[in-house]
Every structure is written in C-alpha cells, then in structure tokens.
Amino acid sequence: MAALLLLVGGVLGPLRWMLVPSIVLCLVGVVWLLVAVISLSPSAVLRRVALALMFAPMIATPLCAMQASQALVLQSRGVSRPAAVTRIEVHHGKSTTYDCTVRYDGSATPVTDTVSCDAGDRVGEHVLVVRDPGGLVDPEFDWQVSAARVDVVFAVMSEIALMAISVLAVAVGAVIHLVRRRRAGTGRPDGTDTQTLRLRRSAAS
C-alpha cells in the first residue's frame, strides 16, 4: 500500500492543481515504507540492505510516474505547434536543469512558453511543442511526449521492484523474529522450553 502511494503521488504531480496532494502522498509513502521496514526487520544488517536496495526505486517511481503522466495527458489532449527557442536558462543545484523559452510561429502577437529542455538545445533551434489548451500540464517537446511508453515501463518496473524489496524484507524479518523466539524459548536440545523446566524443578522439590 505504501509503495502505491508513491506511484499515485507521481501520477498526480504534473497536474498543476494537484501538486500539494502529490507531495503529501509521496512523503507519506516514503515514511510508511521506512517505518515498516525498520520496525519489522529485527536484524540491523537486513535493515541496511533493504533500505539501500529501496533507495533507487523510491526515487525513480514518482519521478517516472510524473513524466509518464504528463506525456500521456499531452498525448490525449495536447496540440502540436511549431516554435523556436529564444532563450535557455540554466539552473544549478543538486543537478543541473534547463528551461527553454520558446516562441510559437504563425501568431499575430508573440506567444511564448517555457519548456523543460536539456544541454543539447540551442537558441534559434526550431522545435515542435505539444501544449494542453486547458493548461492542465506544462508543455513539452514532441520527442518527449513520444517517449511516454518508455516512462510508463520504467514507472511500473520501479514500482514492482519497490514492492518486491519491501515485502521480501518484511517477510525475511518475520522469519528471523520467529526463529529467535523459538531459540529464546528453548532451554534444552530436546526442545523443552525454560518455563517447563522451572515448573518440573519446583514440583520435584
């Protein structure tokens, strides 16, 4: 269930009026997964291995879901328009991102949009932009929209990997917990538990 929240949150992310619920769902999903794995895994080594394996899918699932959702919305509602790149802004942070300002061709008055792009784009480049007339999602280049199937596959694969790792970690943790309980309750090699031995000794005395 917690893993599904990440997927749903990512799907809602590109919708401008659903940004806050998307962030909340993703945060709840991450916290829920971490608490479940940490609390249900009695072994410190198991917890570390599970958290390390879950790290990449936890990030990839909402991000791929966001890209797939935006591209699918543009495929179903979008309109393609030729444009030219007039400006490129570079944003430096944990990773470098690029925003291209594009001006649409054939308009009586200049109409511009901001499109997420990459380092390979250049000012003056002629591009094809797909935009939603209703403004439900941000516009994208035509080639980005065409890659929606790939984004869907990555989102589903990340979700499956996340669910498999979390379920396996919890299952292994449960087995370890049961084994430890049985060992703690066994006082002799023949399987007689410690409490039974104490009752026998008190009865004999």
Write a structural description.
With about 200 residues, the chain is an alpha+beta fold. The protein has helices spanning about 1-10, 20-40, 45-75, 140-145, 150-185, 195-205, and strands at about 80-90, 95-105, 110-115, 125-130, 140. Strands 3-2-1-4-5 form a five-stranded antiparallel beta sheet. Helix 1 runs antiparallel to helix 2, helix 1 (about 1-10) packs antiparallel against helix 5 (about 150-185) and helix 2 runs parallel beside helix 5. The longest helix has about 40 residues, at about 150-185. It is elongated and about 85 Å long. The model is unreliable at about 185-190 (pLDDT under 50).
- Quote the beta fraction: 15-25%
Main sheet strand line-up: 3-2-1-4-5
Radius of gyration: 27 Å
Shape: elongated
How many strands, which pairing sense, and closed or not: the largest β-sheet? 5 strands, antiparallel
Order of helices and strands: HHHEEEEEHHH
Output the structural class: alpha+beta
Helix content: 55-70%
In whole angstroms, the N-to-C terminal distance is 55 Å
* Continuous helix count: 6
Count the strands?
5
Unreliable stretches, pLDDT < 50, 5 or more residues? 187-192
Mean pLDDT: 83
